[in-house]
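ok trying again, last paste got cut off:
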Amino acid sequence: MLKKPQYLAILLTLVLAGILLSLPAQRKAQLKRWFGTVFVLGFGASKATEAVADKARVAVTPRKVLGKQLADLQEENQRLRLQLKQAEVISRENDRLRAALSWKTQTRWEVRLARVIGRDPSNWHRVIHIDVGSRDRIAENMPVLSNEGLVGRVASVGVTRSQVVLIGDPKCQVGAILEPSGEAGVIEPGKTGNLGPGIVALSYIAGDSEIKPGDRVLTSGLGPVFPKGIPVGTVILARSLDYGLTKDARVKLHANLNRLEHVWVLTN
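nice, full thing came through this time. structure:
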């Protein structure tokens, strides 16, 4: 059975319903607008209360938790930076290998690609080590090139690696020829010592020869090691010696010997 308060509630509801039904239409519309305003205000107050509660929850987040979240974000940032750097290195390596393979298809020589794996501590700028050896059919005195030009020759061979002396070392003299004059000479370190990065001397040129900056220097093929026609460098300075009886020149090498990563061993 219904209790007395429940009877009173039902009776009050019926009375209010009757009053509302008996009111004129204009009055009913006013009451609807009033109830709507009350509802909107109540709903807005509820949302504002929820927003304040959310801000309060953030404000009371423990400092230790915020510190860990910041550390996690910093660690993720460092990890992504490292991955980006690694991707850039791989991309550059792929570009170099594509360029090398493209060069191989255009050269007339039989060559084998090798990776530079070290330098001689006692002769850092004149000796490198490569990752091919006798098992790869590499032999002493085979010429070594880069995509740009002559690098040096194989000096000694192991089973899996070889030593290369670079052009400009006293142990790597090269017969050379000038274009367009056709004059011959010898590439060597220079009698006055180190000439600077990537610079070698071209000596024993006839005194009456025509030689000027910009002339190309190629291997002459006069000798048992280097075939004719390998690009060596470009003349940057020429001068007369011995009262005009001979001339020599300074040659800027095409190959950057300080940045060698991959080289070609000429095998035929």
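cool. The domain at 112-166 is CATH 2.40.10.340 (Thrombin, subunit H). The chain is about 35% helix and 30% strand.
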